[in-house]
Automatic annotation (TrEMBL):
Transmembrane segments: none annotated. This is Amidohydrolase. One of its GO terms (molecular function) is hydrolase activity. SUPFAM superfamilies: Zn-dependent exopeptidases.
């Protein structure tokens, strides 16, 4: 049994640092989509960006599902299936956050 005063917390910290994922690509994706919002039914650019990222991760991509819908299928053998659903559209609002990745578009609904 491990002693509470041993170096296990230090070991855990080093493991976390060693295996911490690089999230830069996802941050860039978020900022890009945030800068270029599209209203419901007009999400052609957003759908293309999502499809491109899924293809880069070796997903089989199906486009134009019910309009601009995108399905990414990753097959990894028999077993349980996981479905994740997300919205692609944005609201027509003037963003005044001052963030470097603030929306660059003005939209009318």
């Amino acid at each position: 049994m491990a002693n509470i005063n041993d170096n296990s917390s230090t070991d855990l910290t080093s493991v976390i640092r060693q295996y911490q994922p690089n999230l830069t690509v996802y941050e860039d994706f978020y900022r890009d989509v945030h800068q270029h919002p599209e209203l419901s039914g007009m999400e052609s650019r957003t759908a293309a960006v999502v499809a491109s990222h899924l293809e880069a991760l070796d997903f089989t991509v199906h486009l134009n599902i019910g309009g601009h819908g995108v399905v990414g299928l990753l097959e990894n053998g028999p077993g349980k299936i996981l479905l994740i659903r997300a919205e692609l559209d944005a609201l027509p609002t003037l963003e005044q956050t001052g963030l470097p990745y603030a929306s660059k578009k003005e939209m009318v609904d």
